[in-house]
Structure formats: structure tokens, C-alpha cells
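User: Round two. Same drill as before: sequence, then structure, for each protein.

Assistant: Same drill it is. First protein:
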Amino acid sequence: MKYCKKCGVLYTTDVCPKCGVVAPEASEPAPAAAPKTVRRQWIAILIAIPAAILLITGVLYLLKAIQ
């Protein structure tokens, strides 16, 4: 079933029965990224998440130390 984003109706035809909007055609999936780019992005995630946790912990520690 298709879902009309304009009026919120579920329908099975090519055109929404309530507002008459034609359903958009399915787009092609994005091409796969280069393995080097994917590896670089994973390394960035593995570094950024612990860094963010340490930053939040440090800020909370400083706020607690000030009080």
C-alpha cells in the first residue's frame, strides 16, 4: 500500500483517491561508497563517540566541582 504524504490516506491505486496526487516513482538506491571512505567514516565514529562522552563527563565534573 502507498501512503499519501499530503492527506495521510493509504491507497493501492496509482493516484491518491482523496487528493488526486500521483505517487512518485521509486528512486534508484544510492551507489555504494568507496571502501576507503567507509573505513574513514567508521574510524571517525569510533573516535567521536568516546570523545563526546568524555566531554560531557568533563563538563559535569567541572559543574560539580564548582558547586
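Second protein:
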Amino acid sequence: MNQYSNSATRQLLNHAGDLTGWIRTCVAAFVEDLASASEDISTNRPMVFAAGNHVGIYRGQNSGPAAQLDGSLNELPAQIARILRGSLRKGVRLRIGSDRAVVKLIQLPEGAHEVAHAVIRNKVESLAPWPLHEVLWGYRELPAPLNGQIGFEVGIISRKTVDGLLAPFRAAGIHITHLDVSEYPDEPKGINIDFQGPARARAARRNVAAIMSVAAVVALATAALGSYLAITTHLEQSSTELRTAELRQALTGGSGDSAANSKLAEANRLYEQKKDNVPVVSMVNELTKRVPDGTWLNSIDFGGGKVVIAGRGAETATVIESLESSDVFADVNFASATQRDTNLDIDIFSISAAIQAQDPVR
């Protein structure tokens, strides 16, 4: 038996790999959902219908043609721009006839709605006369099932063809936002071709990457602050323990009763002081919790078992009540007269409080 394959290290690495794959799958699905949130094609917008060498211009879905033009679609955008003025150029739907695309009818069982997209994608790979990465495609469901079958009309078009169609419109200042395929200009819903999907996917990936980067920076900053506070507390404790050890060593190796008693008294004094003192980190955390929202502190003076805070706020009495209810502070009172800032409608206060000694560890 291969012991390495059954080791805890190998199992841990396998679990880490599974977790990484799961995270990537979730992020990819999230990006796909963001990229698929496109504007509704059914909204009433100007439309250019091109079939053969005939081009019709419509100012709205329910309106008649504003103009009929003859000629190559690549040569007409300048004339179209003169008809669609101002805001009408900003959101135009381009509908092309089936002569510029491959249109096929696919029938699936009536219960195949959930997997229809995947099945149609596989069909497109065999129906398209171009490689799959060079095509754009879409489909629409036919109105009613027939004999337990649902029909889907699939439209396939080359990316190069779409780029060639859109380039003259961009040059003429016309913004094409939707592209569909249909034989008739007055058909309510054509076969929508999502030509902006790759661009939305790239934008979604950039946004998700930016959000994750910010989250990582915040997490690292939080970890760094926590590490700093932990190291500071540890160093303070180590310093106290080292000083105590030095005093004990001096006591055991010293000569003369008076020197020994003096050093012992100093050691006891330091021990009692450190034992009863509240750590600075704990005191600051307690102040952070007790000071209400809308009140900010300008300074904190700490020493001799007493803390004096100076700040501004509209609820000075609330600050005192909150500190009095704490187990860390006692004898809370004003350290100086409170002043009123009439411009900001707030009080300028200075409050003192005694630091209560910690309960001895039993």
C-alpha cells in the first residue's frame, strides 16, 4: 500500500485543491451572472432593418418606417445618421435578415427547458460553418409546444460579419446596442444575438477582481493590526517578567539584609503594579465600545491609575453614563468645565475617570 497517498498531508492537499476549484467555480459563475445581465431587447428603441440591399429605418418598435434606403449596408450609415438625430442614435437595434445569418429550427422534448441552452450550444458547434470561437449565436423559443416537442429557432452569424456591420455605424456616430435576426421588420421579437457578451464578461471580471483585491487588502490590514497589538502586549509582558527575574536574581545573590529588603520591596511593588493595572489595549477597547456614535475624542491621557479624555459631541451626559456602567472605569466626572460650540451645536468636554484594578486570577 502506498502510505504517501494515505497520509494526512496528501489528504490536506487534496482538500485544499478541492476548495480552490470550488472558489474558482463560484467566482466564474458570479462573473457569468453579472455578464448576462443585459438590457431588455423588448424596449421601444429605434431600429435599422437590413435584408439584402434594402434597408428600413424605424424610430420605434410600433411606428412605421421613417425611411427606406437601397444599397449596401456598409455604405448607408451616413444617410441613416441624418435621419436618426440626437438621442435616437444612442440606442439603436440592428435587425438583419436571415440572408446574412444561418437560421435553423431545433426541436427538443417539452421538459428540456433547463438544459436547452447547453443542448443548443452543442448543436451550434455542428451547425455553424465557422469555428465555434468565431461565431455569435442566439435562439428564441417558438410560441407553443407541438406533440410534446418545443421548438427553438437558432440564429448563427460570424463575428467578422458582425464587426464589419458595426464598424460603419460607429464611424457615423450611431451606437448599436442590440442585434437580432428576423425575416420581417415588424416581428415583435427576433433572434437576439448577444454581441456585447464578451465585453461585459471582461468588465465583470475586472470589477470582481477589484472587489476581491480591496477585500484582500482590508483583511491583510486587519491581520497586521491584530499582529501588532498581540506583539506589543507580548513584549510588555516579557519586559515585566524579565525585570522580575532580574530582581529575584539580585535578591538571591545580594549581600546585606537592607539591600535585599530594598530590592524585594521594589520587586513586590512592580509585581503589584503590573498585576492590578489594566492593559492599555483593554482600556482603549473599552473606550471605543462605550463612547456613543456622534462623539469623537481629541486626546486620551493615561497615567497614575487615571484616564482623562477630551472630545466633542452632542451627548456629553450619555458619555458619562456609559463610562459609569463599565467595569473598567470608576469615579467618572468632568475634568474641566464643558464649553459649547454654537456653530456646530456640540459640547467640548473633558472627562476624567479612575481605572479600576483587575480582579486577581484565582
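The longest strand covers residues 149-158.

User: Perfect.
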